[in-house]
Amino acid sequence: MTDEKVTTVQLNKSVVNALKRIKKYPRETYNEIILDLIKTADEAREFDKFVQEAQKAKMKELWGEGDYSAWEHA
Questions:
Q1: For every residue of 38-69, which 3-state class applies, written as one string?
Q2: CA distances for 32 relative to 37, 41, 57, angstroms
C-alpha cells in the first residue's frame, strides 16, 4: 500500500460476502476490488454515453431535425 491516508468504512456483512465472492485471487484486498468496480462502472458509463449519442444521431437521420431532449431523460 502507498502512503495514502486510509479510512474505516462500515459495510453490511452481505456486502462483505459479495466482495469476497468476486475476488480475482485470494489475497486481493477490498480496496483493489472496489477500485476495479469503480473502473468498470466508469467504463460502462462512457459506453452508455457513446450509445446514446449514436441513437440520437440515428433518430435525427430517420426523423429529421426536432427536439429530442425528452429522449435524453427517457
A1: HHHHHHHHHHHHHHHHHHHHHHHHHHCCCCCH
A2: 9, 14, 38
The SS3 call for residue 5 is: coil
pLDDT digits (tens, 9 = 90+) for 26-60: 999 999 999 999 999 999 888 888 888 888 877 77
* Burial class of residue 54 (count of CB atoms within 10 Å of its CB; 0-12, 13-18, 19+): exposed
Residue type, 53: E
State pTM to two decimals.
0.61
Please give the span between the terminal C-alpha atoms of the chain, in angstroms, as a whole number: 43
Domain range summary for the chain, segments of one domain joined by +: 13-72
C-beta of residue 68 within 8 angstroms of C-beta of residue 56? yes
